[in-house]
């Protein structure tokens, strides 16, 4: 620590009179023994029991929000320190919303995580789970050339909640990971935006051939689920409202094509599907039925041999279990998700729960699999928070101590309906409880208003609610922002 | 174009009734001959004369804003499609302001550039200037693995304005480019923010040694000019207000050190300097007088051998001529900038002007060099816009046709004073016209208020004015955003 002594002698003594700096410098002299592969050991009797949450999506964050931090310490392990408000992510790609408004820091969702002495957020990935010893193995997330080597460490848990989500499915199609962009994280939206604006500007450079211009400005979306449809709608809004005005030279070259193997919005009421199809076509989105066979750098190839040149390719064909979920030695549900029982517990092991897209009911429950929706994840997170609090109050919070606790009501999922925006101030609202059921279906401006209002009250913090409202208002008044930063 | 015919046959004919898609598809059949190395040739008699502006900083953007687009077509060549409002850039690193609020798209500053048929923005770098033939050589900017090869093209000009700015000086110190981050572009601010938040989270991972924790959270700023001081002030505000609350576990480890070879804020009044020194020290910034000798991955080495470990290193020691400026075969001013006369013309060549940080008066003018300040650049841009409009009205707009035009008043720079914020709601305002002069000097909250008000009225568009005000208000109410996206 010799540099510190040097440093202090370098302070310009004529101008610095405060003694405060010496206080702060003294902190530098504390040094303990190295402990490279350390971690958090089992909780002691004088500590609160520890809930370890893997993941920071809808399920994990809703759970952490509901946990009683007077009963438990909370440790979250995730490669990102915020939750992504996924339903509004498509709007950020074209500048309708700021990226930041759809990202909610975990420390705002559960403040204890950054203030309580026994609660932590670790920017890390889970690499393995030792269910017998109640230990999670982790590796810190680093990035860039200057980043330090990843650290390996372990965290002991009293209760473990696996909420690691899912990963995009590619059906083994070659080239998807290399050339397509998914739409699940904020950095995906940033990449789409940068690419779109780059292509708009590239196509205006003198000497670019007509055919290359067409390619650069051809935006292809694969997958006609709500995400693909909402993104296509936002894109066509952006083209109609902003590109025509701000990129007048190339406005006639930009096109959006949505490719879907079956029907778009297949979970929606047939009349809503019809409405969406008409509406998207009207606003210039070309709907193509086709199956993608191969993805190359500048074109995709469909099953029947059709070649589709593209400048921007967004892939949104649903999700499946991720590598870490597949690798875990835990009971599985049909389809490869982690198996859970009616109380969201993982059978055959103690104190492990799983919620959200990474989990599914084991066959023995006789329950139908739940869709991979934010709605399901959120409801499960809420349920499990209440359940864990109840277990904690009944003195079942410690590892291996909940065997005699009455878990009470099972988790029951009631579908509240689906919504999707389709651009041009129009949206779909389907309030049927299942695909075959009857119920209210709405389409048009009123639905769009309901869609906006619903999301505005759901964006978690007041800060972000406020920003989303402000963003929407400024987009209306000033148009979308087109700076490429 | 066979894929297009295929595509149209793939539309789900039961659901698509609009004929509009055929209209849009027909656009794809237009195809012209390839013209890879084409460009914009000399303007014809029926066209407006063309002003080509290289760069999109304060000087270039202020000029474009003032150009009369009834007289001229405007072509801007720059590697970024927006102007950066540099005085507020430091605030974006710690989340006080959004990145987007300090970036103003050029198409908003001069709308003609995206709407007039003869006006363009090219995302490109200038690689050479052929003054004899009135031609600029350019290369398009691309990035990423999937980006197309850069395109080379030429643009003929009637009037050329070189406003390429300057680049950070490193005094040839080894390792600065590799390990330090500058603070001149929005992506610099983004990099600083990501690194700062990564280090905050890394330092909380179990098993990190105390010494490593100290290093990770040691933020070092080299250079005590306004940028370095403002960034240090923002950082200490962030630490006091947000880190203490949101990163409670590591709050005692984070420190800011400002290293300056001479005096901080050397252009300011001595009492203001004294005030700033006291204020920064009080808010925990350690001021160190020292000369950096070498920069390594995790530490810097000072001239006297002192080693200073750091987790984040921001380099802000002023600017000098960039490589392209040095390579241009044009008259130079002392110090290597492009030489200009009293009317901001480059002598010995026709129709070339230069403004902003890249230019300086040639020795024969007998004028003292102007500082590399936004203020100077903006005033020069404004002056040159008026001058070019005047030349155009006097029929001197075409290449080689302004020889007989009376250029009128010379450019005279009157310094309006300097401002710098130093954190904790305090700022300095120095209204003296030069270093030796007398005049009003203010420090404290009132100055801070003046500082905010002044910038709020200067952020160019109403959209961004509005956003800056909203950002400041929300930071006050909710604190800074800490999501790392």
From TrEMBL, chains A, B:
Instruction: Name residues in a coiled coil.
Output: none
Q: How does it sit in the membrane?
A: Peripheral membrane protein
Give the subcellular location. Mitochondrion inner membrane; Peroxisome
Q: Which UniProt keywords apply?
A: FAD, Flavoprotein, Membrane, Mitochondrion, Mitochondrion inner membrane, NAD, NADP, Oxidoreductase, Peroxisome, Transit peptide, Ubiquinone
Q: Which GO terms describe its cellular component?
A: mitochondrial inner membrane; peroxisome
Q: Which GO terms describe its molecular function?
A: NADH dehydrogenase (quinone) (non-electrogenic) activity
Task: Provide the catalytic activity annotation.
Answer: a quinone + NADH + H(+) = a quinol + NAD(+); a ubiquinone + NADH + H(+) = a ubiquinol + NAD(+)
Q: Please indicate which superkingdom the organism of origin belongs to.
A: Eukaryota
Q: Where is the External alternative NADH-ubiquinone oxidoreductase-like C-terminal domain?
A: 415-481
- Report the EC number(s), separated by commas if there are several: 1.6.5.9
Instruction: Name the cofactor(s) required for activity, per the record.
Output: FAD
What Pfam families does the record point to? NDH2_C (PF22366), Pyr_redox_2 (PF07992)
EC class (word) = oxidoreductase
Give all residue intervals belonging to the FAD/NAD(P)-binding domain: 50-381
Provide the family line: Belongs to the NADH dehydrogenase family.
Function of the protein: Alternative NADH-ubiquinone oxidoreductase which catalyzes the oxidation of mitochondrial NADH does not translocate protons across the inner mitochondrial membrane.
Q: What is this protein called?
A: NADH:ubiquinone reductase (non-electrogenic)
């Amino acid at each position: 620590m010799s540099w510190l002594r040097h440093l202090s002698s370098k302070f310009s003594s004529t101008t610095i009179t405060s003694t405060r700096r010496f206080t702060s410098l003294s902190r530098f002299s504390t040094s303990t023994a190295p402990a490279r592969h350390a971690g958090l050991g089992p909780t002691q009797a004088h500590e609160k029991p520890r809930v370890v949450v893997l993941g920071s999506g809808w399920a994990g964050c809703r759970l952490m929000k509901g946990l009683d931090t007077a009963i438990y310490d909370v440790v979250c392990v995730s490669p990102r320190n915020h939750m992504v408000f996924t339903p509004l992510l498509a709007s950020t790609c074209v500048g309708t919303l700021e990226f930041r408004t759809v990202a909610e820091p975990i420390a705002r969702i559960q403040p204890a995580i950054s203030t309580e002495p026994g609660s932590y957020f670790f920017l890390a990935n889970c690499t393995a789970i030792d269910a017998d010893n109640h230990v999670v193995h982790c590796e810190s997330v680093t990035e860039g050339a200057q980043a330090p080597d990843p650290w390996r460490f372990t965290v002991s848990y009293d209760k473990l909640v696996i909420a690691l989500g899912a990963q995009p499915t590619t059906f083994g199609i070659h080239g998807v990971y290399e050339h397509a962009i998914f739409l699940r994280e904020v950095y995906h939206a940033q990449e789409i935006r940068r690419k779109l604006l780059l292509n708009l500007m590239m196509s205006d450079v003198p000497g670019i051939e007509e055919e290359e211009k067409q390619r650069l400005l051809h935006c292809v979306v694969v997958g006609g689920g709500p995400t693909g449809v909402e993104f296509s709608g936002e894109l066509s809004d952006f083209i109609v409202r902003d590109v025509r005005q701000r990129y007048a030279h190339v406005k006639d070259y930009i096109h959006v094509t949505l490719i879907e193997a079956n029907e778009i919005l297949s979970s929606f009421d047939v009349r809503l599907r019809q409405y969406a199809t008409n509406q998207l076509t009207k606003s210039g989105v070309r709907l193509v039925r086709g199956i993608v066979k191969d993805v190359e750098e500048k074109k995709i190839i469909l099953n029947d041999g059709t070649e589709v040149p593209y400048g921007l390719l967004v892939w949104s064909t649903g999700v499946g279990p991720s590598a870490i979920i597949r690798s875990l030695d835990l009971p599985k549900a049909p389809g490869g998700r982690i198996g859970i029982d009616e109380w969201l517990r993982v059978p055959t092991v103690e104190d492990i729960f799983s919620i959200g897209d990474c989990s599914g009911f084991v066959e023995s429950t006789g329950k139908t699999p739940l869709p991979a929706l934010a709605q399901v994840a959120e409801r499960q997170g809420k349920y499990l928070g209440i359940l864990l609090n109840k277990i904690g109050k009944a003195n079942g919070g410690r590892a291996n101590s909940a065997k005699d606790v009455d878990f009470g009501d099972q988790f029951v999922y009631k579908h509240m309906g689906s919504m999707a925006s389709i651009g041009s101030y129009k949206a779909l609202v389907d309030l049927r409880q299942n695909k075959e059921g009857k119920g209210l279906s709405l389409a048009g401006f009123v639905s769009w208003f309901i869609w906006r209002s619903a999301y505005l009250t759901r964006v978690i913090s007041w800060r972000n609610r406020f920003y989303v409202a402000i963003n929407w208002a400024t987009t209306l008044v000033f148009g979308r922002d087109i700076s490429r930063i």
